[in-house]
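Case study.
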Amino acid sequence: MNKRILLAALSLISLPAFAIDITVDNNPGAVADFSSLQDAINASNEGDRIIIAGSPTNYGTSALYVANGDGSFTMKNNLTIVGVGYLRDANSVPANASGINAAAAFGLTLGATTGNRNLNGLTVIGCDITPNLAGNNSNLLFDRCYVRGFQYLGNETNANFTRCYFVNALALRDSSNCSVTSSIIGGLILEDSSVASHCVIRGDSLVTVEGIVVVDATSSLSNCIIDARSTQAQTYPPVFNGSCTHTIGIGNAQLPTGGGNLDNQAIADVVLDAGSLDAKWALAVGSPAKDAASDTTDIGAFGSASPYLLSGLTGAPTITRFLVPAIASPTTGLSVEVDIEQPSN
Amino acid sequence: MKALLLALLACPSLCSASLVYAEYVITQGTPDNDPGLGNGVEIPLPPSGDGMDLQFTVPPAMVATLTPGVYHLAVRARDDAGFWCTTLSRTFFVPTATPDPAPIDSPVDQLELFFGALDGDNDSGSGNGTPVDLGNPVNLTNINHQFSGAEIAALPPGLYRLAVRARNEAGLWSPALSRTVKLTEIPTPESFEVRYRIEGTGGSQTGELSNGPVVEFSESYAITHSLQNLPPGPYEYHAEIITGFGQVAGSASSPFELVSHVDYWDQVYFTDPSHRSDPEIAGPDADPNHDGVSNGESFILGLDPEANGLDAYGARRGRNGRGVAFVTLPSALPPGASILVEGSPDLETEFIEHATISAPLHLVTATDISSSLATNPLNFAYEDLELTSDLDPSWTKRGFYQFTFDYSGNWPYPFD
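After joint prediction, the assembly is written out as follows.
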């Protein structure tokens, strides 16, 4: 092979770019690679990590694919999107030095059922997200997210939610290999071999008239707390056709007998029931959920080896003080002062 | 996997006869993956085979072999009649074992600052800023960083966003936080000037001087200029550096003594104060080194008046615009010997032109002009001019000589 042929052959090899951090911030005067999440996604390569700053302004809805103009699409696979958590004020998380304590809120359209838009790989951490999951998506992980909207999975593969707060209900169905763990959920449907463990189902968001919680014969629910006190929950009580073990019912959750289940508990006996939206589901002193899970940790979202984290905090530090003179010159130099907050939970 | 998977098998709900064998299988995906009856992992049965509650543990080692995902744990039993009960299955989830990409407990290990433009893509990229030392042990409060004047000067003047962000050991950076800062320009070198004023008993002199490019504000200036029409005496020198904004950036003053050339020459050569005050040694007609050259002549010629006579050998340059060719002849010079005469045309610059001598020059006469030197100094010079002659034996006296040459019309340069 002569040199020309060799070069031509090499040019056909598409090497993945070195994964980088891409920063997004839509606050006025911010320093970042982009102010638009969609622009950041469009500019990203597989494996990149997008870091989104908290902002009182929603980042809008972005798609994880780019139209090529010929009817085909380039999917933005295997990205990691990292925010700053949520409910920060409610849980007294320190604001940054600019007084911004909002979440990084945005909508995200993953794949689509048309146009061969099959997303493969996505990790979202610490974001206030409204995902559109009704596509042919696979290998998804939502960790420490504030998930808005009723979430109905549709033909997803290996979609996992962990340590999330769902404003509404979640339906894991018509999909395969899907799970939700260590999360706080309005209502829950587990079908088609889905799994839920160490969750709190608040019972305040009905996803189907079949019941506030539905576990089909192929699915499994364990180590959860189900609040069945609401009128809605009483009208549409949980349905357990599959496994339900080591679960505590607040009110009459109609749990199966045995299997470590404990039904008809008073809420004050089980959880704090006071504080922020997520903190109120931490266990009360002397709760029967304490150390009662099948893995000997606590039942509920704050149990398990990887428990729920208040406000969905990531390990990213927060700059809580940043003093900079307005003017600097070569004769004065520039002196700055910084304080950093190490996140904790 | 640390946690053990625990399954409870309520056998009466499966079979009603006496059980003799039970097994479990773990499958993923569709039930078609079942290895078949009797091909599972046996569950030890208690002695009584009647209806019973079985509790068994899937060995952690087996669970550890499972990739993350949802699995089915199926349990079934066979009675003493050989009948299998219906297989009962439950799903369970094996979580991902990959490290948490954003662990909450990862300590801060880096801090960086960087300048960005006011708008647009102004992020230089994580890890590309100016690192800030967090100390050891790491300190997260009251962190101070000072950008030097040179670092500020390296950026074009204007408005910037100075951003800061921190990273934890897991490699996760915080969003950048920024502040607007205006970087001002430094005055251009041309806009600087130095103003000076000299004041003293003999009068005053003022002026302005331009200086070279300014590199640093700490730069030292060497100021050189003439002192015109000032008589000897005590003076005070004042200088100010004026910026392009008309501000005084710095000033300095220093006293100095202005002396005459003769006084200066005296101070240079008569270092012994007792000699300088003795007219027999330092007077204008004295000749303390006895080389035949008076102090006055030594001043004109730039000679050391107290050095021994050797310094008067050869050609010298004089002062005050006067030239001289000065030769000391040995007492005994054999016929046919040569001498070398060197000089300068103006006693300020070297005579650099080499004459091409097409024919030997013959020294014809030499006139002693020592006595008239003060009023009629020599004003010619020759460089590397080798002269040959039958020298007059009477030339044994040290002193100044003016030479006249017979160049036979071949010398291309005039002897002025």
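Observations recorded in class. Helices of chain A lie at 3-11, 37-43, 231-235, 267-270. Residues 181-314 of chain A form one domain. We will return to this complex in the next lecture.
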